[in-house]
Amino acid sequence: MTELTVHGVRVPISPEEVSAEIWRALQTGSYEANEARRIARAIRPGDRVLELGAGLGVITSIIASVDDVRVWSFEADPQTTQLAQRVVDLNCSGNVLLSNGILAAGPPQKVSFFRRSDFWMSSGFADQGPYQQVIEITSQDVDAFIAKHRINVLVMDVEGAELELLQNASLPGIERVFLELHDHLYGLAGVQAITVAMAHKELIYDPRGSSGPCVLYSVDDGERQFDAEVAHAT
């Protein structure tokens, strides 16, 4: 097993455990690079964060490094969950609860999850491309989970499932949502639908934490002083 350092996170992993493409991304630092650069803009000390789509736990670990943050993280792929748990155990200080499962809008229901060799392409969409395995998972109600754990920040990278969830969930008490858009699955009309759904929840597109498909929606917290670092990055 090799230990890589990816965006400051220690990742113990063997090349046999991931696809060749993901291994190259880990070695070159391109793995989740945009998310890693931007996630700090979405997280503040003391936040209670729900992460959907943990992947290898790299972004999870970055979130958990912020002072006094608690993280509840979910990954649908059971094999990827095991890899992520290894990363979380090595980098985090007991403030992350990682689970294998799916949270969705509405009561629990059976969800088909299509597992692919490049796990970042695994999703609930059969027509996204060839898949290795179909896993049946019973979802949990995302709104009930948010209310129970007093979550105030939602982070999502769920390969297209964000469209249905954000349109149909209420997201009680959520102040910020950071997600990766997947317009190749639902087109620009889907992106517009997400933005409209967020506006109905009084969550506004926030350019201070957004870049390309990685988008931050925030409650309006008033004007801020000019931030030269943000201006330069954008």
Automatic annotation (TrEMBL):
Listed transmembrane segments: none
Pfam families from the UniProt entry: Methyltransf_21
Methyltransferase FkbM domain span: 70-186
Keyword Methyltransferase included in the entry's annotation: yes
CDD domains: AdoMet_MTases (cd02440)
KW Methyltransferase (keyword) present: yes
Keywords, alphabetical: Methyltransferase, Plasmid, S-adenosyl-L-methionine, Transferase
GO molecular function: rRNA (adenine-N6,N6-)-dimethyltransferase activity
Name of the molecule in the record: FkbM family methyltransferase
Phylogenetic lineage: Bacteria, Pseudomonadati, Pseudomonadota, Alphaproteobacteria, Hyphomicrobiales
